[in-house]
Amino acid sequence: MKLHYLQHVPFETPAAILDWxxxxxxxxxxxxxxxxxxxxxxxxxxxxxxxGGPMGVSDTDKYPWMAGEMAFIKEAVAQKRPIIGICLGxxxxxxxxxxxxxxxxxxxxxxYSVSLTPPAxxxxxxxxIPATFDAFHWHGDTFWIPEGxxxxxxxxxxxxxxxxxxxxxxxxxxxxxxxxxxxxELVRNCGQELLEDSPYIQKxxxxxxxxxxxxxxxxHQILFRLLDNFMENARxxxx
Length: 239
Hints:
This protein has a single domain (2-235), classed as Class I glutamine amidotransferase (GATase) domain (Rossmann fold, 3-Layer(aba) Sandwich). The protein is 32% helix and 26% strand. It is built from seven helices and nine strands. The protein has a nine-stranded mixed β-sheet with strand order 2-1-3-4-9-8-7-5-6, with helices on both faces. The longest helix has 20 residues, at 216-235. The mean pLDDT is 97.
């Protein structure tokens, strides 16, 4: 298996997704967009992962590489390459599939629970995933569910937390790939957002304290199961 990931900022890596890929013997490659690296042909990847970042889908003037990335994502979807978007990556997928991306009513930053929706209960991609689980969040925007997609998860602060489109597109607003180190990196690099007054923004000291006690191993078991399910479903054409 060849995994290729797109990274938008130095401090937001695929984290535990790389652990999963290495455990499956995958060949891993990347495009570091913040370094101006060129995008490859999507057909060379068995799985594409689009990571998060502090920018938004409308920030094309600030980040000229976004236009090329959007074209890459659309081409990957057209080629039926299995593709997963995390946070900003999920918003890119929604946008490329014709859905709106807009500010959420609340910013959601910290450790909060996610609940599966009824369509996910019978989905082979979400088979074996708990109905409710804790995850890490860091987002101010949300997406509408694209036409033809299935709404798969929600949280108290953000209704649209995940969707599946056909058998080869998976979008996750939340971060189940996060590690203690990646959480600390986000606090270090984006901590100014934590000073805002919002019912769903945890203070930096709260996030760091929770990260010390959080069961990342249990969350990564969910991640590994979800990735295995997704790849099997994509190989089987959604059967």
